[in-house]
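Narrative of activities, Objective 1.

The group set out to show that a structural description can be obtained from nothing but a protein's sequence at a throughput compatible with the screening campaign. Below is one input-output pair from the validation batch, recorded exactly as produced.
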Amino acid sequence: MSNSPSPIIALFDGNVLDWLIEQPADLATIRESLEDGRLQLIHTHLLRDEPDATPDLEKRAKLAAVRDLLVGQYVPTTGFVFDDSRADEATFFSEEVARRFDERLTTENPKTGGRNHAEDALLALTAEAEGAVLVTRDRRLTNMATEQGIDVTTPGDLVERLSEPASA
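Output recorded for this entry:
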C-alpha cells in the first residue's frame, strides 16, 4: 500500500494561462507536479477554445504554448449552452442541475440572464461533477462557485499547496 497522498485534481479557467505566462517558475512547479503525480489536470474544450479566439496573434501563440505544456485528461463540459458549448463535447444537464445553472446565471447578471457568464458556470459545474478544484483568478467566478460549495483556488495558492513538503 502506497503512502503517497492522493493527487490534486484541478480544472483551470482560461485566465490561469495568462498568469502562467508571467510566472515561469510556477509553470515549472505545475509541470513537475504533473510529472510526479501530485497534480492531475482535467480540461474541457473551453481551455482549447479561449486561447484560439484571442485576436492578438502574439498573445494567442503564447497562450497556446502554455496550454500545450499542460498535459491533462479531456472531459466534456457538464451541461450544454448554445453558442458556448460544442454538442459533441458536452453532457446534458439533469433538471436539477439546469435549475441551479439558470439560478446562478440570472443571479449573477439579471439583465442578460447571465449569458455573459455561461462559460464560467460550465467550468464550475464541470469541476463540481468531476470532483476537481476549480483554479481561477476571476473573483466573481470564485464567489459564485464557493457559494455553491465548489472547491476553488487561485493559481498562486495551488502552486503553494504543490510546493508544500509531503506530510509523513
